[in-house]
Write a structure and sequence with these properties.
It is built from 13 helices and no strands. The protein is an all-alpha fold.
Length: about 300
């Protein structure tokens, strides 16, 4: 049963997630982002450089086991996925910007994730007979479940825009729910992991997700971005696609021990994300209640 989940269902659902992201993209989205290069540059820099650096900082500070540290760094290399898009929509962020940034990072992930993770393993080697990551096969397999579905989704959006616009929201919700169910199912087969939510690994996950979310949000504010863009960048950096990390650990590398932190992340990341959404929506309510208060919904 577990092999069916990891070898068949997980790649399929992740591909559906990426297909839904691609169906939400159109050339106008990329053009709109390129018209504001500061937003795009900051978002990609935070996602691709700042987040892995933050993970490395936490790994150097916290006395994590080598596998837990590798799992945390692996999570930091993954794109946001449909979950970050959904949180951005709920938080009244810039939905188009969220989908576009997720799409761009998803297109880059098949190259950036294997390269950076192999570099990490060179600096923090695990047992040679226990762990190895062939670079080119990893790039090919990640491309099949990320790059190809996103590209296919964009083609569908281009040739069947009306149909894609109707189907994409439903596909996004269903695939997000399915990914959550996959994480829960994998956790159910490893019930002992529930106790580790209150361990050092759980603390590291909460620190990574909450610090990255808040730092990205406030850096975007310092850069003069609009409130909706600030929220989107915060959530794009603070909410990673745990499914991609789980796929790498269980399907590509077939190392269940490496998947422990990504599995825990798939659940624990929701705590900072929902807290952030509650905070910004409460802030909107307070602003609307003040005389002359205005709320920038961004969607």
């Amino acid at each position: 049963m577990q092999q069916l989940v990891t070898q068949v269902l997980l790649p399929l659902i992740l591909a559906l997630v990426m297909l839904g992201i691609g169906m939400g993209l159109q050339p106008a989205d990329f053009k709109r982002v390129m018209e504001r290069p500061r937003v795009a540059f900051l978002g990609l820099a935070l996602q691709l450089f700042f987040l892995p650096c933050l993970a490395l900082l936490l790994v150097s500070i916290l006395p994590l086991s080598p596998l837990a540290a590798a799992g945390l760094f692996l999570v930091s290399l993954c794109p946001g996925g449909a979950t970050s898009n959904l949180f951005s929509l709920i938080a009244r962020g810039d939905a188009a910007l969220s989908v576009t940034l997720t799409g761009v990072t998803s297109l880059l992930t098949p190259v950036t994730l294997p390269l950076l993770f192999v570099a990490y393993l060179q600096l923090h080697p695990l047992e040679a007979d226990y762990f190895s990551m062939p670079l080119l096969p990893a790039i090919k397999q990640l491309a099949l479940v990320t790059l190809v579905p996103v590209t296919l989704g964009m083609l569908i959006r281009g040739f069947l825009p009306d149909w894609a616009e109707k189907v994409q929201p439903l596909l996004r919700r269903l695939s997000t729910l399915a990914m959550l169910l996959i994480v829960i199912a994998l956790l159910a087969t490893h019930l002992h992991l529930m106790q580790r939510f209150f361990s050092l690994e759980g603390l590291a996950i909460l620190l990574l997700s909450s610090c990255s979310l808040l730092i990205a949000y406030f850096l975007a504010a310092r850069a003069g971005l609009q409130e909706a863009e600030q929220r989107t960048l915060g959530l794009e950096v603070g909410v990673q696609n745990a499914g991609t990390a789980i796929l790498v650990a269980l399907t590509l590398l077939q190392q269940p021990a490496l998947a422990v932190v990504p599995l825990m992340y798939g659940i624990l990341m929701n705590i900072p994300a929902f807290s952030f959404v509650f905070w910004v929506l409460r802030k909107d309510g307070l602003a609307a209640g003040r005389p002359g208060g205005e709320v920038n919904e961004g969607v």
